[in-house]
Amino acid sequence: MDNSNHISRKDFIKNSALAMAGLSLMPSIATASTLVDSINTSSFKKMKFKNVKLETGFEYEEGEVIATKTGLFCIEIENGKISKISVNEPNSNAIDAKSYLMLPAFKDMHIHLDKTFYGDKWQAVRKRKGGVKGMIALEQQILPEILKNSTEKAEKLIELLQSKGTYFARSHVNIDPTAKLDALKNLQKAIDNKKNSFGTELVAFPQHGVYYTDSVPYLQEAAKMDIDFIGGVDPFSIDGAIEKTMDFTVQLALDNKKGIDIHLHESGESGLKTIEYLIDKVNENPVLKEKTYVSHAFVLGKLEKPKQEEIAEKLANAKVGIVSTIPFGGLIMPIPTLYKYNVEVMTGNDSIVDHWNTFGSGSVLQKTNLMAQLYGYSTEFLLSRALKLATVNVLPLDDNGKQQWPKVNDQANLVFVDASCSAEAVSRISDVKSLVYNGNIVY
Q1: H or E element that contains 317
Q2: What global pTM score does this model have?
């Protein structure tokens, strides 16, 4: 961020107290965002931005969308919500958004904040031995050391996500006989430290299997704590029993009023059976609809087209979502087919610099760009639609080009990017210039 307009902390706090009428000491987004670490971000109650670029419609030629129309506006925020959208006042005493494009802030819906090397010394992935069970054995060795400073590393990782425009994450957290509840407790400390600048929901994740390492008592205890989902991993290949493991998971979620989010890497018959069994359990327990997800779900990429369509329709009817990290290479997930049947599809970075994965930028906009490349979303219209993967289905314009975001009373979770429109932002993975969370400038 640019420090050229730096002001003193004392002057900044004095100035911010004047609310919208007294933002003259904050001539740019860059100035304000460099100071968030030195002030209490919850002190922001009112803000006014000028020169905010918003999408206003599509431009057509022979029925095809060839460009996105934009305009400059003033945006006012009060008590964490957008309070006013008005004609631009370039000479007003407000924070200058410098004609950056304002978009809905991003969500990372599959990440592991609890076990990262990020923020610590660099370590690349080592050769894997023994598949997932081999990785479980490795985790049993290294988790105690990882957990020694996992709170601090989680905070650093959250800051990386913020710098990429993400204000919210669904994090899986290890619950197993090695970590017990320590990974959860450490992560909850990090979340509490960042509560004014970042939102989260947590998945109690039996990385080492439900029964393979007897994680049952720890999962039962975690389910009573401040978590949102009961997780799982490959019930057949890890625990050797689809029905027994899924029955336990579903019942634990029901008993504790939680959602479900299952890691499913199995790409053969067992993967398909697991998805179909979970769909059946959700249909038997409708309270789990819109609260149940399958992460990865690689088996969907292995099915023949008719079977993909059949499962997509079943997922949609049961309101079971898919969280994909957009794998590339030999496995192409049928995301367009899932969209066709209105299955909720979300994405996340999964592992960022840990013993599972060396790579990971922290950007869900990059994931969206990858999705657009994989499926040929190269036109102005399709690129603009692709943005919903990063924002979890919030788009500035509807399919007909009518402006639907932002609206007065929308929560002020905003990202400013250096792009002319959302299509360009996806195509070029445009730079994030600032992030606003619940009305506070946090980056």
Answers
A1: helix 305-318
A2: 0.90
First and final C-alpha spacing in the chain: 9
Give the number of other Cβ atoms within 10 Å of residue 418's Cβ: 15
**Helix/strand/coil (H, E, C) string of 256-305?**
CCCEEEEEECCCCHHHHHHHHHHHHHHHHCHHHCCCEEEEECHHHHHCCH
pLDDT, tens digit (0-9, with 9 covering 90-100), for 127-142: 877 778 888 999 999 9
Query: Does a structural domain hold residue 302?
Result: yes
Range of the domain at 91: 9-99+405-441
Please identify, among 362, 388, 421, the residue that sits at the C-terminal boundary of a domain.
Answer: 362
Answer yes or no: is pLDDT of 418 > 50.
yes
Q: Provide the CB-side half-sphere exposure for 193 (13 A, CA).
A: 16
Identify the bridge partners of residue 101 per DSSP, sorted by sequence position.
Answer: 53, 417
Give the span between the Cα atoms of 402 and 434, in whole angstroms: 26
CA atoms within 13 A on the CB side of 429: 14
Q: What is the C-alpha to C-alpha distance for residues 200 and 188, in angstroms, rounded to an integer? A: 10
The Cα–Cα gap between 206 and 385 comes to: 35
Q: 197-251 pLDDT, tens per residue? A: 999 999 999 999 999 999 999 999 999 999 999 999 999 999 999 999 999 999 9
Taking the CB of residue 321, how many other CB atoms lie within 10 A of it? 23
Residue type, 60: Y
Q: What is the 3-state secondary structure (H, E, C) of 357-381?
A: CCCCCCCHHHHHHHHHHHCCCCCHH
> What average pLDDT does range 34-45 have in this prediction?
42
Residue type at position 43 = S
Question: How many whole angstroms separate alpha carbon 54 and alpha carbon 44?
Answer: 23
Task: Quote the DSSP letter at residue 406.
Answer: S
Query: Is 382 among the domain residues?
Result: no
Region at 57 (left for phi over 0; alpha for psi -120 to 50; beta for the rest):
left
234: domain CATH number is: 3.20.20.140
Residue range 72-103, pLDDT digits in tens: 999 999 999 999 999 999 999 999 999 999 99
Residues 203 and 334 grouped into a single domain: yes
- Residue 123, Cα to own-chain centre: how many angstroms? 24
